[in-house]
Amino acid sequence: QVQLVESGGGLVQAGGSLRLSCAPSETIFSINVMVWHRQAPGKQRELVAAITSGGNSNYAASVKGRFTISRDNAKNTVYLQMNSLKPEDTAVYYCNAIKYGTYNHWGQGTQVTVSS
């Protein structure tokens, strides 16, 4: 089973930045899509950003222009750079790895708290 190790969450003031990392236990080349989701208290989990093995990315409208998803093949890690953070970005952020027809694994989540 693929393990996903997330890091980088924390407490930041509004307008600040954080970078989340997700390192899968399997080589990133074999994973079709890496996704970051988030879930705020009392809300449904939502997709934040996704990146394919070919490097194509997409974003939720609420984070477009502020967040950037990227992958470092040499470090076997996917990042979510979050800038201009807002209190409404407060949530638990989850990394998700999808290998078509094989698996769909999730990390345990990392808390991001943005204070006003």
Task: Tell how many strands the DSSP assignment holds.
Answer: 11
**Helical residue percent band:** under 10%
Radius of gyration computed on alpha carbons: 13 Å
Order of helices and strands: EEEEEEEEEEE
Compute the separation of the termini in Å.
39 Å
Structural category is mainly beta
* Coarse morphology: globular
- Tell me what portion of residues adopts beta-strand conformation: over 45%
Q: DSSP helix count?
A: 0
Q: Main sheet?
A: 7 strands, mixed
Mean pLDDT value: 96
Unreliable sequence segments: none
Task: Walk me through the topology.
Layout: E1 4-7, E2 10-13, E3 18-24, E4 33-39, E5 46-52, E6 57-59, E7 67-72, E8 77-82, E9 91-99, E10 103-106, E11 110-115
Parallel strand pairs: 2-11
Antiparallel strand pairs: 1-3, 3-8, 4-5, 4-9, 5-6, 7-8, 9-10, 9-11
